[in-house]
Design brief:
Strand order of the largest sheet: 1-3-2
Distance between the termini: 112 Å
Number of strands: 3
Largest sheet: 3 strands, antiparallel
Helix content: 55-70%
Order of helices and strands: EHHEEHHHHHHHHHHHHH
Length: 313
């Protein structure tokens, strides 16, 4: 026997913090075999046993199985290969857990029944190709027959969710809700009407221009922030400004017909689900939140409505 220090199993337990039972189990599995035995027949371990046990404990805490650990300590496989494989397996588990969290959170928020929970679960588990098909189907339904101008590819991209390969829990939750909304026939119909109205407003010569919703949102923002009553005289200037910009956008003069036309556009656009879709889209794509349009549209619809005569019956 050489002069290297030998440790009893009890001493190893004190030095490593592992129990005697655990060390004996590892020894029986060949992961930390004893160096020799004492004259009385007790197992004894060399100095390298401490380092081995520290590595085994670390890898076990990280979820590496004992078979893989034995291959590492026996130098049958490099440590980096095992850790890389287990890191990838853990990444898969994390993605699965995020999906489950998204489904359960969405179901809890809306007090969902069994059928809705099943739908949410299915949406969360879609593959990348399946997500792409769902989005393409939504955009086809919204833009079919009208997406012919130079501005439309950019508009379609601005409405396209792209879930990253490693999404956060918030992105997964947003995707599930967005996907459910994109399949709502009523929401699709409303978005299609909005796109057709946008096309009608932009069927004029010249480069792409902002739509009526953007014109109103920008014109109304200061008055909305200041708490101006839309039915008060103080709102007159806001209406004049917005209508002037909209008239320029459409190439028509401000008047009753144009005001009724804008009211129709805004009433179609004033769907809280549209704001919700854009909010969810920002989360999924990692974009800055664009702000809601509903408060501005509510304000201007009231302001313009009180200043526009009803059509003759």
């Amino acid at each position: 026997m050489n002069g290297e220090r030998r440790y009893t199993i009890g001493e190893l337990a004190r030095r490593t913090g592992l129990s005697v039972k655990t060390i004996r189990y590892y020894a029986d599995r060949g992961i930390v075999p004893p160096t020799d035995r004492s004259p009385a027949g007790y197992r004894r371990y060399g100095p390298d046993a401490v380092a081995r046990l520290e590595l085994v404990r670390t890898l076990r805490d990280l979820g590496v199985d004992l078979a893989a650990i034995r291959r590492v300590v026996d130098r049958e496989v490099a440590l980096h290969e095992v850790t890389a494989a287990h890191a990838e397996a853990l990444a898969v588990q994390i993605r699965v857990l995020r999906l489950r969290q998204a489904v359960l959170s969405a179901a809890a928020r809306r007090d969902a029944g069994p059928e809705e929970v099943e739908l949410l679960h299915r949406l969360a588990r879609l593959s990348g190709q399946e997500r792409d098909r769902l989005v393409a189907d939504f955009l086809d339904a919204v833009f079919d027959g009208v997406a012919t101008g130079p501005a439309y590819p950019g508009i379609m991209r601005s409405l396209t969710p792209e879930l990253p390969d490693e999404p956060s829990a918030a992105q997964v939750q947003a995707w599930v809700e967005l996907a459910e909304l994109a399949q709502d026939p009523d929401f699709r119909a409303g978005m299609r009407r909005l796109v057709r109205q946008y096309a009608a407003d932009h069927d004029v010569p010249g480069p792409p221009r902002p739509d009526g919703v953007a014109v109103v949102r920008d014109a109304v923002a200061p008055a909305l922030a200041a708490g101006v009553d839309p039915t008060s005289p103080a709102a007159d200037a806001v209406v004049v400004t917005a209508m002037g910009r909209y008239a320029q956008l459409t190439g028509q003069a401000d008047g009753t017909d144009l005001r009724r036309r804008l009211l129709a556009r805004l009433e179609t656009a004033n769907d809280p689900r549209r704001d919700r879709y854009l909010d969810l889209l920002s989360v999924v794509n990692g974009w800055p939140a664009g702000g809601q349009t509903t408060p501005a549209l509510d304000w201007f619809i009231r302001a313009l409505g009180t200043r526009t005569p009803e059509p003759a019956q």
